[in-house]
């Protein structure tokens, strides 16, 4: 039921959607309770989940007038990869809960739109297939596993399959407690697996007496001992640039730079430490600390072109979409993710023009009211 194909009528509604909120409604309507709980949930009371959005809307823009905006240009690049507009797909586990084409659909949409997809370690589709679908527009998200040998194999595979960066998630030594998942005992349906990590070890064997199957599964696999001192080990495993995903303070951003890593500001979509600072509120001190020495990205709560510009104004080079891509995938597979990206691209272009900026280089802190 969860992963049926969208009907012609549903695909029609997708094409008529005028914003990401409408696509969210379409996507939600196509998911069963299990998948919906997993995608939508935040940790505990959901304060950080909401703050990610609310803190964007609190920021006010200072548009300039009488600028020639006949040829607005939204292009940029991330780690040398050209992007048609400054938006990529954040890593999320288990795209198979949304659509039978799973990560392949997401990758095709990102590639077709001149964007970039970050593939989760916990994808339902093996890396090599996604690498082909992404046509070079692929980053790989790493959860470092307690099994270092398996981690090495995964990194080597990602590199061999064309990933252009290794996005190392640092905010999840344990999973945050998503209480709806606990209450309803989230479980991965039997037809789905996580082939990058667990083709050998099926989810079925995971103890589910306490907590959700997912939490136990994750907790058994991930390395909880890893510190800054171990980054040298990771550095030695790959030639790829390393991006640390989940940084929320200037102190950690400084350490990231000292360790030769790029910085991805994120609170994991409000799914980890509840009441942690929103991503957009964390960004300014991090941008000041980084001071242009490495690339800086942000995710969390981005649903509007104006959100994208606000993040860029505060120092991000590009932003990434978590749930919005999943809602698009649920609503219409590749076409749904494509529609999300198209709408956001067009919103970025219009917001840029109405702000009196011709290109992204013109977006600085003066775009925002202090
Ligand atoms: C259902 C779901 C699964 C996720 N899985 C992962 C993951 O496997 N690895 C990871 O680094 N982040 C994961 N994230 C976090 C996202 O990469 C991203 O930080 C977050 O969703 C951004 O917030 P947004 O959903 O408001 O756009 C996941 C998020 C969601 C909603
Ligand atoms: O749900 C998540 O946020 C997440 O990062 C994750 C990834 C893999 C397995 C379980 C949780």
Automatic annotation (TrEMBL):
Record Pfam families: FMN_dh
SUPFAM superfamilies, per database record: FMN-linked oxidoreductases
Name the UniProt key words of this record, in alphabetical order. Flavoprotein, FMN, Oxidoreductase
| Boundaries of every FMN hydroxy acid dehydrogenase domain copy | 12-370
Q: Which InterPro entries match?
A: Aldolase_TIM, Alpha-hydoxy_acid_DH_FMN, FMN-dep_DH, FMN_HAD, FMN_hydac_DH_AS
Kindly list the cofactors needed.
FMN
Q: Which residues form a coiled coil?
A: none
Q: What is this protein called?
A: Alpha-hydroxy-acid oxidizing enzyme
> Which species does the entry assign this protein to?
Deinococcus aerolatus
Q: Which domain of life is it from?
A: Bacteria
Query: Quick check: keyword Oxidoreductase in the entry?
Result: yes
Provide the taxonomic classification: Bacteria, Thermotogati, Deinococcota, Deinococci, Deinococcales
> Which family does the similarity line name?
Belongs to the FMN-dependent alpha-hydroxy acid dehydrogenase family.
Instruction: State whether keyword Lyase applies.
Output: no
- The transmembrane residues are none
């Amino acid at each position: 039921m969860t992963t049926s194909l969208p009907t012609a009528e549903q695909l029609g509604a997708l094409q008529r959607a005028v914003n990401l909120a409408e696509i969210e409604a379409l996507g939600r309507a196509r998911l069963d309770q299990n998948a919906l709980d997993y995608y939508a949930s935040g940790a505990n009371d959901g304060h950080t989940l909401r703050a990610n959005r609310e803190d964007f809307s609190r920021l006010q823009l200072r548009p300039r007038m009488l600028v020639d905006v006949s040829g607005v240009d939204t292009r940029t690049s991330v780690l040398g990869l050209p992007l048609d507009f400054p938006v990529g797909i954040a890593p999320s586990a288990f795209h198979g809960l949304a659509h039978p084409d799973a990560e392949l659909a997401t990758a095709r949409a990102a590639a077709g739109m001149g964007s970039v997809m970050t593939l989760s370690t916990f994808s339902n589709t093996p890396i090599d297939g996604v690498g082909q679908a992404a046509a070079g527009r692929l980053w790989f998200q790493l959860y470092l596993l307690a099994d270092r040998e398996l981690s090495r194999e995964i990194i080597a595979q990602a590199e061999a399959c064309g990933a252009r960066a290794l996005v190392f998630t640092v905010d999840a030594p344990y999973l945050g407690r998503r209480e709806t998942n606990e209450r309803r005992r989230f479980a991965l349906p039997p037809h789905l697996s996580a082939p990058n990590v667990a083709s050998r070890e099926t989810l079925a064997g995971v103890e589910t007496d306490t907590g959700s199957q997912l939490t136990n599964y994750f907790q058994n696999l991930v390395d909880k001992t890893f510190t800054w001192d171990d980054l040298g080990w990771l550095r030695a495993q790959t030639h790829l640039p390393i991006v640390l995903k989940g940084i929320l303070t200037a102190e950690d951003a400084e350490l990231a730079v000292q360790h030769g890593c790029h910085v991805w500001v994120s609170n994991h979509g409000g799914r980890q430490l509840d009441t942690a600072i929103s991503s957009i509120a964390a960004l300014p001190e991090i941008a000041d600390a980084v001071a242009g020495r490495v690339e800086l990205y942000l995710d969390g709560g981005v649903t509007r072109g104006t959100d994208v510009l606000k993040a860029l104004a505060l120092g991000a080079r590009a932003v990434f979409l978590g749930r919005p891509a999943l809602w698009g995938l649920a609503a219409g597979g590749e076409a749904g993710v494509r529609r999300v990206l198209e709408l956001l691209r067009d919103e970025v272009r219009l917001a840029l023009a109405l702000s009196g900026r011709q290109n992204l280089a013109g977006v600085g802190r003066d775009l925002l009211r202090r």
